[in-house]
Amino acid sequence: MLANVKDRKSQYIDNQTNRGKWIFGQAGISKRVEFSARDVARAVKDELSVAPTKSSTICVLHNHPVEDFRSANFITKEQELLLRTKQHKLSIPPSIRDTRQENVDAWKDILEDFREQGTSVDVRLGEVDPASLTYFRPIKDEDIRREFPNYLAEVNQRKKIEFEWGDTIDSLLIKLNETELDELHRHSYYRGKYDRAEYAKFNKFGLNYLKRMDLFSELSDVENSKVAEILLKHNPEALKLKQNYMDVVKGGSIRNRIILRDVLYDWLKTSMTTPTEKLPFSKEYSKLREAYARNGAYIRLVPHKNIPNEPPCAGTNYKP
Ligand SMILES: [Zn+2]
C-alpha cells in the first residue's frame, strides 16, 4: 500500500520500516487517496510482531501541493510573482475539513483493539507543504485556557448561552401534550418521518420521545424555523434568548470563520516573504494559531529544516 501511496504523491504514512521518507508537497495536482484504517492497522500489527513495543504512533500525513491553490485562485498575481522568485517557500496550513474531529474518530475502534492487546497506539495527523509540516488535532478546553486567553471569554459566554438555550427549549418541549407535540412536529422539517413502516413497531411513548428530539435538534440548528416561531410565541424571554443564541453562538462561529480566512490570506503572504525557519517565531504565526483555535483546531508548524531535530511524528504537543 505504501508504494501505491507514494506514486500518487498525495498521502503518506510513516511507519517504523519506512521512517524518514517524507514526501514534500512541492508540486503536483490534488488527488485523494482512499485508504482503510484497517489496512494501516494490519501494517502496524505486522511491525509489532517483529518489534514488540508497549506504545506506538501512527502518523497520517497528506500533502498540500501549490498547484491546488493556484487552480483555486487562492493566490493573487502579486503572490504568484513572489512565488516564482522562489525566495521563500509557501506554507499552506491544514483546511478546517482536515482538522475535524471525525478524522480522529475514524481511528477510535482500531486504537481500542490495540489497547486490548496491550499496546497503546497514538494517531497523529499532519499536513506537508513546501515550507513545513503542520501537525494538527481538535482543540481541547485546557488548550484554550492555557494558550488562547483572548478567546477564552468568548468560549465561556458561548457555552453559557448554548446551555441556557438548550435548557429553555427542553423545558418548553416537555410541557407540550401529545396533541400540541403532533401539531408542532407537523411544522418541522421532520414532518411525516414517522409515517414510514419502520416506525410502526414504536409505541406512543417512544414516538413522542423521538419527536421531541427532532424538534430539539431543529431548534438548535435552524435560524428561521417555523417551529421556533410557534413554540416561542408569547414568550418574550425565550425569544430574547433565541436572538442571543443566534448572535453569539451561530454568529460567533461565522465570525471566526471569517477571521481564519483573513488570517490565512495574510499567512500565505508572510510565508513567501519570511525565511521559513523564522515562521514559528513570527507574530503572524501566533495569529494563525489563534484563528485555528477559534475554529476548533490546535496546530503546530515545523519548518522542513527542523524536522530532523525532532522525534519522528513529534505531533502537536511536542516542545522543541
Ligand atoms: Zn488538507
Topology of this structure?
Blueprint: H1 2-7, E1 11-14, H2 37-50, E2 55-63, H3 66-71, H4 77-85, H5 101-105, H6 108-116, E3 120-128, E4 132-138, H7 141-147, H8 149-175, H9 178-186, H10 204-221, H11 226-231, H12 236-273, H13 283-293, E5 297-303
Parallel strand pairs: 2-3
Antiparallel strand pairs: 1-2, 3-4, 4-5
Helix pairs in contact: 8-10, 8-12, 9-10, 12-13
The protein binds zinc ion.
Defining traits:
320 residues; alpha+beta; 5-stranded mixed β-sheet; 13 helices; 5 strands; 52% helix; globular; disordered N terminus; binds zinc ion
Helical residue percent band: 40-55%
Number of strands: 5
Strand residue content:
5-15%
List the domain count as a whole number.
Answer: 2
Helix-strand pattern: HEHEHHHHEEHHHHHHHE
How far from one another are the termini?
A: 32 Å
* Number of DSSP helical runs: 13
Query: Stretches where pLDDT falls below 50 for ≥5 residues?
Result: 1-26
Bound molecules: zinc ion
Q: Kindly state the mean pLDDT as a whole number?
A: 84
The gross shape turns out to be globular
Largest beta-sheet characterization = 5 strands, mixed
Sheet/helix structural class: alpha+beta
- For the largest sheet, list the strands in their spatial order: 1-2-3-4-5
Radius of gyration: 24 Å
Q: In a nutshell, what does this entry contain?
A:
The chain is α+β, with helices and mostly antiparallel strands. It contains 13 helices and 5 strands. Strands 1-2-3-4-5 form a 5-stranded mixed beta sheet.
